[in-house]
Amino acid sequence: IGREIYCFDEVDSTNIIAKELAEDDASEGTVVIAKTQTRGRGRRGKKWISPRGGIWMSIILRPEIPPAKAPHLTLVTGVAVAKTLKREFGLDVGIKWPNDILIGDKKVCGILTEAHARFNTIEYIVVGIGIDTNVDVDLFPEEFREGATSLKRELGVDVDSVDLIRKLLVEFEKVYEDFKRGRFPEILNEWRRFSKTIGSYVEIRKQLGEIVRGEAVGVNSEGALILELDNGKLRKIVSGECIHLGR
Ligand code: BTN
User: Fold this and answer.
1) 209 lies in the same domain as 106
2) Measured in angstroms, how far is the CA atom of residue 47 from the centroid of ligand 1?
3) How confident is the model over 122-160, as pLDDT tens digits?
């Protein structure tokens, strides 16, 4: 990972650049980093605010896995980021299902995994990581400001972004190699230890506007969230936006 790194001052989105490079046969582990993005993308078609001072990067992967397992990479990446932030800064780092990295109850990092498959095989996966390192979230538009924080705000000092990127890539490589060796169950256990969702009462907003509420009681071997609904029934949630309502 990171044997080849492309650095840009400004791009539309590092995920888009990575996709173009991957289509041009860029090798596994190629990394794209930009100082700022004009069209940063978040999950569910949302915009991602990407001012200078943050870490905006994408990694090209070519794992030999069935497309159905591509979402595992999101959890793999979450564990790598959470472990790195915890180790480097000792903050109260947690993960909100499926892939928001939190400090306390505020989001500091988002992960956008985009898989490109053909004939039911993965050609490549782009994992996009956005970390609010030295950014001032107070300057974010209101709808993005709420619930967000930055490392600088939490620590009170600037973070060395280049050093953090280096450490992140080293950790990512370790967790990713474990994943390729079939150790996803162990990685999931680490994910569970970071989870701030398990044990919380949550609201899940599904793609078609459906809303499900219940207590998050765990994640299954696929990384799907298991909810205990108010009527006591269990429901498996594969995707959706998760809002923590309380403990
Ligand atoms: C989320 O909605 O939480 C995911 C945000 C992912 C943002 C990162 S920044 C680098 C990469 N390029 C993008 O356009 N998005 C991802």
Assistant:
1) no
2) 8
3) 999 999 999 999 999 999 999 999 999 999 999 999 999
